[in-house]
Amino acid sequence: MAIKYITGGKIVLPDSVVCGKSLAYDSDSGKIVGIVDEIPSGADVIDAKGNFVAPGLVDIHIHGYLNEDASDAKPEGIKKMAYGVAKNGVTAFLPTTMTVSKDEIIAALNTVRSLKEESKSWDGAEIIGVHAEGPFINPSKKGAQAEENILVPDADFILENSDIITSVTLAPEMDKDHQCIKKLAAQSNVLISMGHTGANYEQAVSAVKDGVGHTTHLFNAMTPLAHRDPGVVGAALATDVSVELICDTFHIHPGVFSIIAKQKPGKLCLITDCTRAGGMPDGEYDLGGQPIFLKGIECRLADGTIAGSVLKLNNAVKNVLDHTALPVNEVFKMATLNPANAIHQGDRIGSLEKGKDADIIITDENINVLRTIKKGRTIYEA
User: Fold this and answer.
1) Which of 216, 291, 293, 372 is 20 to 30 Å apart from 349, CA to CA?
2) Fold of 3-53+354-381
3) CB atoms closer than 10 angstroms to residue 206
């Protein structure tokens, strides 16, 4: 065993922030040993210098970064994304496809599948699987997705690829008698998420009963919450599903952050929905074969439709901290344990608990990432 200690930091646990203790982890096994009061003399120590010591971030909805896109099906592109987001504190992610042609989706799945094992040991975020956003969506709520590639929900396609598809976004009203939802729920562990949907409240609640467990970028590309027509938003808040929020202050007004946090304790997942324009200068880029235009924090199609984001997950944490009175541990949980639990990985990643993977980040007060540790190895240092 090669035990290392992170000392002098504010250790962020799911239910509290601990000071005056040290976090011990084994760099050989890549596992967390625990929180300790004393460090043996001559120990291998990292001084956190009063900064936050938190779990590695988990991004379950990210299309691209640094001018790369998961749907390009380029191994070097996926790797560039993984290394790039590690600098933002992300230690695990779901490269996310969108409503491109079925052949392009299959190529992307094959590419990510071929890299998954390697990603456990490379100096970037680990690939958990793919989030397939579409192509099983409602044309009326397609957002920045190409209508000609939309298909009827197909459980068999997802099941054939359930070794790599971790979550799928679909519109439940496009799924006749919820045949696809029921089959996926019965035969797989795939997280079924409602999104890009025109369902009404009753349809959405019914879909949850049949197996939907998650909601893709809450509020965006779905029927809104109205007092006589609660829509998908109302159904997501009234049921036990987990929800995503793009907390870039553009997709979602900051006033909404604390409202949803109070409604969905333990179920709110911060995501980036980042496009290839993430980490790049203002200008013209591409999303699913359509030109997108980046200006500041806004990504849009030529007609003004919002088209993904350029959000970094550590900045999402910062935005929620800045615009709410929520405790630090609760906000970090939204980008760590909550998404890990949503994709059935919470027993291994998402918190600094004994026996879990030593996926650790050190950040300053503004959630700038100073160090990223994955499975006990430092993979990024500022």
Assistant:
1) 216
2) Urease, subunit C; domain 1 (2.30.40)
3) 17
Cβ contacts of residue 333 below 8 Å, gap of 6+? 14, 266, 351
Instruction: Give the containing element (helix H, strand E) for 269.
Output: strand 268-270
Q: From first to last of the 382 residues of the chain, give the pLDDT tens digit.
A: 899 999 999 999 999 999 999 999 999 999 999 999 999 999 999 999 999 999 999 999 999 999 999 999 999 999 999 999 999 999 999 999 999 999 999 999 999 999 999 999 999 999 999 999 999 999 999 988 889 999 999 999 999 999 999 999 999 999 999 999 999 999 999 999 999 999 999 999 999 999 999 999 999 999 999 999 999 999 999 999 999 999 999 999 999 999 999 999 999 999 999 999 999 999 999 988 889 999 999 999 999 999 999 999 999 999 999 999 999 999 999 999 999 999 999 999 999 999 999 999 999 999 999 999 999 999 999 9
Domain boundaries, the chain: 3-53+354-381, 56-342
Token pair in block for residue 202 = 């009753």
What are the residue numbers of the active site? 273
DSSP letter for 362, please.
E
Report the C-alpha gap between 259 and 358 in whole angstroms.
32
CATH of domain 56-342: 3.20.20.140
User: Is residue 201 a contact partner of residue 173, using CB atoms and an 8 Å limit?
Assistant: no
The residue behind tokens 């910062």 is 318
Angle between helices 201-210 and 179-187 (to 10 degrees): 30
Residues 158/187, Cβ–Cβ less than 8 Å: no
* Phi, psi of 299, rounded to the nearest 5 degrees: -115, 125
